[in-house]
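SUBJECT: A protein chain and its fold
Encoding: whole-number codes for local backbone shapes
Chain under study, with its fold:
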Amino acid sequence: MIIRFTGTLGSIQSAESGNVSIIVSHEDNNVLVDVSGSPVQNLALAGISPLSLDLVVITHSHVDHTYALPSLVHNLWLLGRSNALRIVGNSETLQVAKDLCDVFGLEKKKGMFPIYWIGTDSQWDTIHCQSLDIDLFRVQHGVPTCGCRFISGDKTVVYMADCCPAETYPEELYGASVLIHEAGGTAIDEPGLVSRGHSSGRQAAMVARSLGCESLMLCHLPPDEQCQQMILSEAREVFPNTLIPKLFHPYEV
């Protein structure tokens, strides 16, 4: 598997990065998780043909995770896509996503490729994407939200999406090759973060340690770089194998 981030920030963007969006690739399969920025351009910057996109996962309905979906669909139509695109999320998220596309009448455009809206409202659902299996599970946030586990052979990548720490986790999440976890602030910010359904970098590191993960990637960061380095430092005190990913860099798992 290869992981590429096209954005690493939370709700507020910066000149250097947009909101969190992740491409997970294996062999000829490409999955986009959350849709921000200029998604077709971002796929191209990552060295991936936009027409090769197999699946889109939208973790929840908040604006920073959904707003660029109409641009993605419109561009794929203009580029001549003909094969179906699957868009996966819980029912609340899919309704917001459909409403966004309906504003521009995208599904009514002549020659529009089929869009399959796949709901995942169970506690645990599995989506098959040829060489990848994707498990979707509920996490604790202010709105219904799903995390993702990507599986290829003996390698697993777990993305917790926006969430606050939980008391227990599904046993399937233990021992992940890579844990991708939000980190919205430092330890001093934790009461406010948790009240809004978020986590600090220190808390993310505690999750990585308790799950026995091999490495931790932090995202959904505040835009201030000095604050980011404080978050990273606190996380490494708990879980040394922690990093903030570089945009568009291919991380092989």
About this structure: The chain is about 25% helix and 30% strand.
